């Protein structure tokens, strides 16, 4: 396909890629250029029906410069991390130097990328974004090699969005980063009952970006060092076991503990970094009261570098917990859109449950709940009408 | 005095004792009965002109039971920790068994205690309370031995309130706790320029009591274990040096880092414990902006098990920082009582300072500021008219 397109003078490929949410957190690099982490991490890839990035990459002999549009707006293409991905195709070609691919590689590139969710809201949009860019470029060039290493160069956690289901990003040992790769631990079909609720607290941009934040943590937090060296290796092995066994009790407990420990190392950073707000704390307390009422772990929260909560639950617990959230954070206005994504059944709460769990409601604190589940890795979009760029290489106008 | 009083059938003693604020934090016991800590800690004793507990202890052959009044209200005297202090006098008397002290020790005891500040607001009222109880009982019985070990049995941090100035509570090694004592590092006169501002955020009772909280931390936080074993021993030595050198930069930086690390271990506890609120975080961010504007550490915050901030500063920085706090948290109503305690001069803020530091004011978030400084240890109140109990052994009515 790439060869044929190159002969026509224009090649184009469109992919989608998922968001992932870490249950053993990544925070801190041992090499900031190569983006090599201080510890391995493990994530769940979320389904693209609810959260995805779509990216079209085009190469043409008529393009005069590399150009990039994010969510319809042209942005500077000179960012070193974007360049690291764009230029990835320029590695020595395994085929002969006179093949059509070499011609294609000499062309300038246009890229358009869109999220179906708010960017920079702590929903790991950069992970989906870079995974999608790398997937689209690989399709454009017809490359079929290990791509998670390339995605990692864009944004560390992006390498985990190169696979569906349950994904480990192994720390690796080599200084060149060639063994710091993502590996699928189990596919999305492994645990069909697992559900994910994203409690969107705020669309605000986070106060300290994760790139700057984690580097300050590496430099100043004695607790982060101990976490990376001693705590995470044990936890990673435990978490793999819990996933293998589909043990929600073990999975949920460890996910909550690891989220809390990540935020603890942010607080141990100097100056301290806070991603959790009073609303996040309300959600955490609510989850613990809910589990305590049931006598076991029915829901498990995890928070990335932002105040939004991601809550894991098994399918049969979703309706009740969603109702508990609705009662605890009564929607301000858009009550009909409070629950989005996968359908949620209705649930009646017992008076005992309400009395024990729904204490001190905070109206409007949760904007909406997105109901989703584990999903597959990046997908090729075959239908040419779905390309984000037109035949002229410019973004299509949106209807 | 005790002997003479015992012959009259009524003995009474009144003492005052100070609050202390740790700059290397105590969190976690290795022995919950003896109250032996997992790490040494270091505190500054605050001046009793602003914050103190007053306690009167009386023993009489006419009393039929032990009784206790806190802030004018009678409370149960059966609490094991109170009993540990009350019964401390029953240790084998170093003098002969027929001395008047033995007679006095057989009497029942009445105790009345009052704070000149709100209890349970995260202002270490239990430390001052137990230090004061032990001091008053020791005076009553005429004991002159090592008392910090006794105070420790009431409330761990109370042992540090048995001395003025800068006080170390050494962890100790012996299983019986006999070497887990408070020691004065430097008297309150050592650093005359040092000032303390208590930013009272809320009079609410804290959500998780420190006794229960720290034990959960010991049981569940891997980071606390590392802190106690590895981080604190280094920090304690550094902090002693900073105090010795009156090095505010070093003292302040380390105090802030250690406060943050203590709260990080609370967050690493499972279920997590939160003492810092959004308002606490605002104060932390404000302090860092203020120091960044000046290019060095002019103020240093520390937070105990509650949202109130304790801010250290040198005397020449107080007026400006207080004005910054007033502008950042404009007082809601009692504007005239916003600053209490030691006098604070007026300060004009430069437009550059305001622009760089006073961002996003939060009206009413700080109730008031208490201005104080390091002070002496427990004091005997000689004036009999100051006793909180009358000649009948009952609390005096307040005018």
Automatic annotation (TrEMBL), chains A, B:
Gene name linked to the record: Mvd
Enzyme Commission number(s) from the entry: 4.1.1.33
Main function: Catalyzes the ATP dependent decarboxylation of (R)-5-diphosphomevalonate to form isopentenyl diphosphate (IPP). Functions in the mevalonate (MVA) pathway leading to isopentenyl diphosphate (IPP), a key precursor for the biosynthesis of isoprenoids and sterol synthesis.
Record's catalysed reaction(s): (R)-5-diphosphomevalonate + ATP = isopentenyl diphosphate + ADP + phosphate + CO2
Protein name: Diphosphomevalonate decarboxylase
Pathway: Steroid biosynthesis; cholesterol biosynthesis
Keyword Hydrolase: no
Domain of life per record: Eukaryota
Residue span, Mvd1 C-terminal domain: 196-380
Biological classification of the source: Eukaryota, Metazoa, Chordata, Craniata, Vertebrata
Region annotation Disordered: where it falls in the sequence: 376-399
Similarity field: Belongs to the diphosphomevalonate decarboxylase family.
Provenance organism: Dicaeum eximium
Keywords on record: ATP-binding, Cholesterol biosynthesis, Cholesterol metabolism, Lipid biosynthesis, Lipid metabolism, Lyase, Nucleotide-binding, Steroid biosynthesis, Steroid metabolism, Sterol biosynthesis, Sterol metabolism
Keyword ATP-binding: yes
């Amino acid at each position: 396909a790439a060869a044929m397109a190159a002969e026509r003078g224009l090649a184009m490929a469109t992919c989608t890629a998922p968001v992932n949410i870490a249950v053993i957190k990544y925070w801190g690099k041992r090499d900031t250029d190569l983006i090599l982490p201080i510890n391995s991490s493990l994530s769940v890839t979320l389904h693209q029906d609810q959260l995805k990035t779509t990216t079209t990459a085009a190469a043409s002999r008529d393009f005069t410069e590399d150009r990039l549009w994010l969510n319809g707006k042209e942005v500077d293409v000179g960012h070193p991390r974007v360049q690291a991905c764009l230029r990835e195709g320029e590695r020595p070609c395994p085929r002969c130097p006179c093949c059509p691919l070499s011609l294609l590689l000499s062309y300038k590139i246009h890229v358009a990328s869109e999220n179906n969710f708010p960017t920079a809201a702590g929903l790991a949009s950069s992970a989906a974004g870079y995974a999608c860019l790398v997937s689209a470029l690989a399709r454009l060039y017809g490359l079929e090699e290990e791509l998670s290493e390339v995605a990692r160069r864009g944004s560390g956690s992006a390498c985990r969005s190169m696979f569906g289901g349950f994904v480990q990003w192994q720390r690796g040992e080599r200084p060149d980063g060639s063994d710091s790769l993502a590996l699928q631990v189990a596919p999305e079909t492994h645990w069909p009952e697992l559900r994910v609720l994203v409690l969107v607290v705020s669309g605000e941009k986070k106060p300290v970006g994760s790139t700057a934040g984690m580097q300050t943590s590496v430099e100043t937090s004695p607790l982060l060092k101990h976490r990376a060296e001693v705590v995470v290796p044990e936890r990673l092995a435990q978490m793999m076991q819990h996933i293998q066994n589909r043990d929600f009790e073990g999975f949920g407990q460890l996910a909550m503990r690891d989220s809390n420990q990540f935020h603890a190392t942010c607080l141990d950073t100097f100056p301290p970094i806070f991603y959790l707000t009073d609303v996040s704390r309300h959600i955490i307390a609510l989850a613990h009261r809910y589990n305590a009422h049931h006598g076991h772990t029915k829901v498990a929260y995890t928070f990335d570098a932002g105040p939004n909560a991601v809550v894991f639950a098994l399918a049969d617990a979703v309706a009740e917990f969603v109702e508990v959230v609705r009662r605890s954070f009564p929607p301000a206005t858009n009550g009909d859109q409070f629950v989005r994504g996968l359908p949620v059944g209705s649930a009646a709460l017992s008076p005992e449950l309400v009395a024990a769990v729904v204490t001190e409601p905070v109206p409007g604190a949760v904007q909406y709940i997105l109901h989703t589940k584990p999903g597959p890795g990046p997908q090729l979009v075959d239908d040419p009408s779905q390309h984000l760029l037109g035949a002229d290489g410019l973004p299509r106008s949106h209807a």
